[in-house]
Write a structure and sequence with these properties.
Number of helices: 9
Number of strands: 8
Structural class: alpha+beta
Radius of gyration: 40 Å
Shape: elongated
Helix content: 55-70%
Distance between the termini: 46 Å
């Protein structure tokens, strides 16, 4: 029975899947629903291009008609319904025909409609790129947050062992009457606090791992963990602000905004197209029975066809279309202003991320020195504590300071990595692989 239990535990552990950061990003790009949605939007935009190109194709109709008619009754008298004369008609009418219509000129509306469809397709492609980069940043953020919490969990576990050992020492000293019950309680409270922190942190790790599974679309019933065996990239330097700024003005948001301006300009051309006539080539051919081209009608099947060019010009468009053109011009100005607002926003976001990144890098020396001091302080206080020169409260304070210093060092390194990718994301320079 024991062997079966051990085998069950081993199998359960073997089912836990370790996911690296690169693998998580790759899975997200392949399976994330937001990215799949953006791909469908590209397909829709491509179909819209084809739909607009189809406007150039001829329209061909096939029609047929069968009906029965009454005789023709005329009233030739001066009074109402007087002097009725009935002319016998051929009671059945058959018509079968076809018609074709080909647009020759429509104020360049078809070409502009195709142009807008192509511009919308360009936007869909950039939006897909943006969605992939957005999801990549979310995956990195979630992954690094889990990494940070798992490192904190290691610190908690090490600290719990230390606290358990200290509690035994205090309990032993109490038995010999060298410390009071209050110090034992203080040690127990410290241990309890660490265990609660570790429990809360472990649950937060579980929640974040579930979020990561949803992002990369790993099945709900599959357990995962992240690969913490590979060291994170060490961030020691930073490029100039201007180098990022030049890239940022060509990021996905800016490219979409520029393309939106182009669409508005094409829409203005379409509105101006209403000032021009519409010219179509047309043709039709049909079989008809009887021949009602003569009266009385001839009881013969006949054919008739025609080809030609028709032109239409909406005179009312000369005054009605003016407002549409003005509105289209205003929409261009609005979109250009919106692009300017976005440019300011991108510049502010980039400056903030660049400044914060510089700050984090400058904190490396500080947190490293703080850890050295906290470690030395802990060593000194612990030595004094073992020699009964300080109370357990001072030992707890030193322990807390050391724990915080350890976490600050790890947290600062991970924050630097995260801020680096936030800076690249704002600049539109996210790498394909980490």
């Amino acid at each position: 029975m024991l062997v079966l239990i051990l085998l069950g535990i081993s199998t359960s552990q073997a089912q836990v899947r370790s996911v690296s950061l690169n693998e998580a990003i790759k899975l997200a790009k392949e399976n994330n629903k937001n990215i799949l949605k953006s791909r469908l939007e590209i397909t829709l935009s491509e179909q819209n291009i084809k739909e607009n190109k189809d406007l150039r194709l001829p329209e061909i109709e096939l029609n047929g008609m069968y009906s029965r008619i009454t005789n023709i009754t005329e009233f030739r008298g001066s009074g109402f319904l007087q002097d009725k004369v009935v002319t016998k008609a051929i009671p059945e009418i058959y018509e079968v025909g076809t018609a074709i219509k080909v647009p020759l000129y429509m104020g360049n509306k078809i070409n502009n409609a195709i142009k807008i469809a192509n511009q919308e397709n360009e936007i869909a492609l950039v939006k897909k790129e943006k969605t992939e980069n957005d999801i990549q940043l979310v995956v990195i953020s979630t992954y690094l947050e889990i990494y940070k919490m798992m490192e904190l969990q290691k610190i908690f576990e090490e600290n719990i062992k230390e606290e358990q050992s200290r509690l035994k020492e205090v309990q032993s000293l109490q038995k010999h009457g060298t410390v009071t019950k209050n110090e034992v309680i203080r040690a127990e409270l410290q241990l309890s606090d660490r265990e609660l922190n570790a429990l809360t942190n472990s649950k937060n790790i579980k929640i974040a791992l579930h979020d990561l599974k949803t992002l990369v679309q790993i099945p709900e019933n599959e357990e995962i963990t992240i690969d913490t065996t590979t060291s994170l990239e060490e961030m020691n330097g930073i490029d100039s602000y201007d180098s990022y700024k030049n890239k940022a003005f060509q990021n996905e948001e800016m490219r979409i905004a520029d393309q939106e301006v182009n669409i508005k300009k094409t829409e203005l051309k379409m509105a101006k197209g209403n000032y021009y006539p519409t010219i179509n080539f047309f043709g039709n051919y049909g079989f008809n029975y009887p021949n009602y081209k003569f009266f009385p009608p001839n009881p013969y099947l006949y054919t008739l066809g025609q080809v030609g060019i028709e032109a239409r010009f909406d005179i009312s468009g000369l005054y009605k279309n003016k407002t549409k053109v003005q509105a289209a011009s205003t929409r261009i100005q609005w979109q250009e202003t919106q692009t300017g607002i976005l440019k300011d926003k991108v510049e502010d976001e980039l400056f903030k991320n660049h400044t914060q990144y510089e700050e984090i890098l400058e904190r490396f020396v500080v947190v490293d020195k703080a850890l050295e001091l906290a470690d030395e302080n802990y060593r000194i206080v612990k030595l004094k504590y073992l020699n009964q020169l300080v109370l357990v409260t001072e030992m707890v304070d030193a322990d807390n300071a050391l724990l915080q210093a350890k976490y600050n060092k790890i947290s600062t390194r991970i924050d630097a990595v995260m801020k680096h990718y936030e800076l690249l994301h704002t600049a539109g320079a996210m790498p394909n692989e980490i």
